[in-house]
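Take a look at the protein record below with the fold in mind.
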Amino acid sequence: MEVSADKAKRNVENIKKFITPFFNLAVSTHVYGYHNIVPTGKLILTCNHRSDMDPFVIGAAFPRFISWIAAEYTTRIPLFKDLVERTGTIPMAIDGNISMSSIKKVQQVFKNGDVLGIFPEGHDYMVKNDFKGPMASFHEGFSAFSLRNKVDILPAVLIPVEEVVSDIPLPPLVRAFMGMPKEVCNIKKRVVYKEVNLVFGEVIDHKDYISLPLAEGMKALAGETKKRMEALQKVDYIKN
């Protein structure tokens, strides 16, 4: 069952109204660089990916509707498939074989003048399970979306202030039964945020890379995005 963009936006708005007050009691989020958020028009939002809580932390604070890219296997998680369908989330294969259906959904997000949310690390950081380590290498697909559709990029980072690292509640055998990739089945720990900084950087203009050959432009744009996000992580932030 596919829902329209307008229906997805209404669903997300209703979910936010209901859940956000409770979510904010559990997670204290300090937002920086709010003025960098482009208020209207097509946009790609990129962020580091340390926890399965990340899209919810961002979604609770972000003033615009976000269509998230999610790994296709997450639709096999109980209740998540229905959530994906109702909120405009776009399932996408992690092996690089992106379906035409997924591409069309991405293009529709931009046609609607909305925000596409992407975690360029994929699940690689969580697979490494070293939550004090640097960001994982970026997958460059988001830069292809940017250049092919002429969309700017808003880099963001989540920086933990206080968090708990706990065992993943689903045993590896259950995850395997649900069809998750082996590397995901073997993840031992997950991060639960208690207090976190959410930082938005300056928008990266796609036009600075559009004149390059596509492969070269993708690499350069992905590299610049990662560089900007790493710089955001190094700033000392003072609580509001």
The longest strand covers residues 153-167. The radius of gyration is 17 Å. Residues 5-26 form the longest helix (22 residues).
